[in-house]
C-alpha cells in the first residue's frame, strides 16, 4: 500500500514507515503533519483511488523527526578572456518526515448508500410553491438630449493675407 503526496509543491511516493526529506516546514520537531494525497494504491487492485471526492477519505499522517541542512551546492560563474570569476554556494533548509500511517477511511457500504438515497428522494419530491414575484417597477422616462452646440472655429487665413499683413 502506498500513496503519492504533495508537500511544498513537490510530489513524493510514500509508504508506511518511510523517511522523507522535504523543503523546510514551519512545524516543530515531534509535530504531527497531515499530507495532501494525490493518489492512493491499496493492496488490492480495486483499492486505487485518485478521484478528488474519494481522496478526501485518505489520510496520510507524518511526524516531523528533525530539521536539517542539505549538501552545499557550489556555484561558479566564469567568462573567459574577461577576468570575470564569481564563486558562491548554497545550502537548502530541509525537514525530515517519518510516515506513521496511511489509511483509507471506511467508505459507506452499498446498503448505507441506498438508505441515504431513499431518505433524499422524498425530500426532493416535496415541491415548494414558488413565491410570486413583485411587480416590476416602471422605468423612468428618458431625458431628451440637448441640441449639440456648434463648434467654434477660427477664421481661416490664406497665405497671401499673412504676407500682406492685412
What's the gist of this structure?
16% of the residues lie in helices and 39% in strands. It has 166 residues and is an alpha+beta fold. It has a 6-stranded antiparallel beta sheet with strand order 2-1-4-5-8-3.
Listing every helix as H and every strand as E from the N terminus to the C terminus, the arrangement reads EEEEHEEEEHH
N- to C-terminal distance: 102 Å
The Cα radius of gyration reads 37 Å
Mean pLDDT: 84
Question: How many separate helices?
Answer: 3
Helix content class: 10-25%
Shape: flat
Poorly predicted sequence stretches spanning 5 or more consecutive residues: none
Number of strands: 8
Roughly what fraction of the amino acids lie in strands?
35-45%
For the biggest sheet, the summary is: 6 strands, antiparallel
Written overview of the protein:
This protein is an alpha+beta fold. The chain has 3 helices and 8 strands. The chain has a 6-stranded antiparallel beta sheet with strand order 2-1-4-5-8-3. The chain has a two-stranded antiparallel sheet with strand order 6-7. Strand 6 and strand 7 (84-90) form a beta hairpin. The radius of gyration is 37 Å and the shape is flat. The N and C termini lie far apart (102 Å). The mean pLDDT is 84.
Amino acid at each position: 500500500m502506498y500513496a503519492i503526496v504533495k508537500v511544498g509543491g513537490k510530489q513524493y511516493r510514500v509508504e508506511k514507515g518511510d523517511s522523507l526529506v522535504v523543503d523546510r516546514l514551519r512545524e516543530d520537531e515531534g509535530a504531527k503533519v497531515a499530507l495532501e494525497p494525490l493518489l492512493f494504491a491499496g493492496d488490492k487492485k480495486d483499492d486505487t483511488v485518485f478521484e478528488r471526492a474519494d481522496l478526501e477519505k485518505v489520510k496520510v499522517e507524518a511526524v516531523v523527526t528533525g530539521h536539517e541542512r542539505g549538501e552545499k551546492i557550489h556555484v561558479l560563474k566564469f567568462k573567459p578572456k574577461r577576468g570575470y570569476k564569481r564563486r558562491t554556494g548554497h545550502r537548502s533548509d530541509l525537514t525530515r518526515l517519518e510516515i506513521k500511517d496511511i489509511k483509507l477511511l471506511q467508505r459507506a457500504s452499498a446498503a448505507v448508500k441506498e438508505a441515504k438515497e431513499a431518505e433524499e428522494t422524498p425530500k426532493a419530491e416535496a415541491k415548494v410553491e414558488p413565491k410570486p414575484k413583485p411587480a416590476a417597477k416602471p422605468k423612468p422616462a428618458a431625458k431628451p438630449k440637448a441640441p449639440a452646440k456648434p463648434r467654434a472655429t477660427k477664421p481661416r487665413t490664406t497665405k497671401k493675407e499673412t504676407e500682406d499683413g492685412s
